[in-house]
Amino acid sequence: MKGAASLASCACAVVLGVACHSSSSSHAIGSSSPLCTGSGRCLAISPGVSEADIAGAFATTQDGDTIAFAAGTYEFTNQLALGTGNGVSVVGAGPDQTTLDFHGQAAGEDGIFAQSISDLRFEGFTILDTPGNGIKALGITGVTFRTVAATWTALDATDGAYGLYPVQSSDVLVEGCTISGASDSGIYIGQSKTIVARRNEAFSNVTGIEIENSFDADVYENKAHDNTGGILVFDLPGLQQEGGHSIRVYNNTVTANNTENFAPSSDIVNLVPAGTGFFVMANHDVEVFGNTFTGNHTASVGIISYAVAQTPFTDPNYYEWPSRVFVHDNTFSGGGTLPDARSQVGLLLSTGMAVYPGGHVPDVMYDGILDPKATPGPDPMTICVHEPTASAVCNMHFDKIDPNNPDLRKTIVCDPAPYACTLPALPAVSLPGLSP
Fold this sequence. Notes:
Layout: E1 42-45, H1 51-59, E2 66-69, E3 72-75, E4 78-81, E5 89-92, E6 98-101, E7 107-115, E8 118-128, E9 133-138, E10 141-151, E11 162-167, E12 170-175, E13 178-180, E14 185-190, E15 193-198, E16 201-203, E17 207-212, E18 215-220, E19 223-225, E20 229-234, E21 245-250, E22 253-255, E23 276-281, E24 284-289, E25 292-294, E26 299-304, E27 323-328, E28 331-333, H2 344-350, E29 364-366, E30 383-386, E31 393-395, E32 413-414
Parallel strand pairs: 1-2, 2-5, 3-6, 4-7, 5-8, 6-8, 7-9, 8-10, 9-11, 10-12, 10-13, 11-14, 12-15, 13-16, 14-17, 15-18, 16-19, 17-20, 18-21, 19-22, 20-23, 21-24, 22-25, 23-26, 24-27, 25-28, 26-29, 27-30, 29-31
Antiparallel strand pairs: 31-32
């Protein structure tokens, strides 16, 4: 359903707020749909409505509108940008029935874009092959992604960076979504607060789920498999919000994340080794528990400093070391058996294979790079690990590596005793109206 009409042809776009019919449309936007359940206007879209009319409906949303796509495939050559209406829903008949196809998109950085509104909901459709991000929600207060699929078919650096991309937002819920093929992250939640990401499936992305520079997040009951990296929690310098904290990652299955990294070489995510299960970098107050890590070839769990990225920064407010991290009661199997030697970190980890307990990268590894201003002691950053079934808990002592002869056999210390502490359980995240 490629729209031959220009956006200008939709000057009639909203007549009494419900219908638009341009000369190139075979169907007008309707005013009723079984998918519309709210009290606001229903903008019912069926196959045959022009792209220009759909774009006009997006651009002129009013408070409480529902944009309802019937079953079918809709092709777009431009970004769909939502207007200023609050309480807007964009819904489809189900991700297996309604597809928004952007493979021919020539303009715009995202498939769907929304900014500076509140109470926004996306539900029940697939967004396909966007050259940029799938759905970007910038500065939204209250945004829900539910049973949305975002996918790319090329599985290379030409794919869009992020599937679902809420940023600088609050009260974020991502549940029941399926994301594959992103050249950065399937689900990426950045510089946001009060977040729940649950019961999603992320696969064949560079990274499955990323929580970046964010506060107060629960990430649970997700399936992250066959990505380059499964689930990452990290902070980066130079952003408006820094100091990520209060993150719980629990009851997820993180399996066989061994896909070769296909991110563009200029992106920092290109540094993630294939075979990464989970890592936390430069965050504080993070609790990781009840997860199952299986068959991640480079490493199951890593606790690392930004120094590992070996990328200089000038931000004076950035704190690059993880602290108050509690990893406990997870299940591990088959991890660390074949570190990705195409990456710097993977190559470094491979140097210690002969001395690792069990002959593979330890199930829990800490890079050992400390804040030089921290109070000296056996565990100055308060890294707590209770993993009696792990193969080993090891300080890799990246801080002591000779750059002229990097060999972990000279530095690694596998002793859980310094990290045999506990931290108080972090509180559950509370979102308005969140049901079990």
